[in-house]
Amino acid sequence: MINRGGDALVPASDPEASTEDSAVRDREVRGLARMVQVSPTTTLVDLTLRGVAPGRYNASIREYGDLKFGATSTGPIWAGGSGTTQPRGILGPVEVGGDGRGAAFLDHPIQVWEVIGHAMVLTGQESQDDLKNDQNTVVGVIARSAGMWDNDKTVCSCTGTVKASVPEFQEAARPALARQS
Fold this sequence. Notes:
Distance between the termini: 47 Å
Strand content: 25-35%
Function: Destroys radicals which are normally produced within the cells and which are toxic to biological systems.
Shape: globular
CATH topology of the largest domain: Immunoglobulin-like
Order of helices and strands: EEEEEEEEHEEEEH
GO biological process, one term: superoxide metabolic process
Low-confidence stretches: 1-7, 16-25
Region (Disordered): 1-25
Helix content: under 10%
Largest sheet: 5 strands, antiparallel
Number of helices: 2
Oligomer: single chain
Protein name: Superoxide dismutase copper/zinc binding domain-containing protein
InterPro entries: SOD-like_Cu/Zn_dom_sf, SOD_Cu/Zn_/chaperone
CATH architecture of the largest domain: Sandwich
């Protein structure tokens, strides 16, 4: 999940705080969610939480990725065209201990591409239908990131331009380099 430039879950308690405002200090990272699709029908969700009150938190994928008003603007739990009474966006529980830390590995029958752009919400609230913004509800937007070693870059010695390491760039750079010598 990406929020404010990192793979982060942030508190929903002050969603309209300006980045210049002192209230931003309250928006520290409260957790991390990693999603790895391990088969065509199964995704592993690795969740960690920190700095929240002890208790049971429910993780869910929401219909929208709109965080303008925090958790309240993320919409209902994502149904995902399930056609059943159980929405596909219900991920499961995360237990947080007395130290304010919790972790869970959840496998879920979704494909990662289906949920990119949706919000993920972790809340201790009993009802997940009408979410309220509070200090212990954390939100983030699910985004794609490159896999390990999948984002190699090459710096062109002729212009200094950073380019992705692809054969076309490497081939195109050779004639320019030959002309310079």
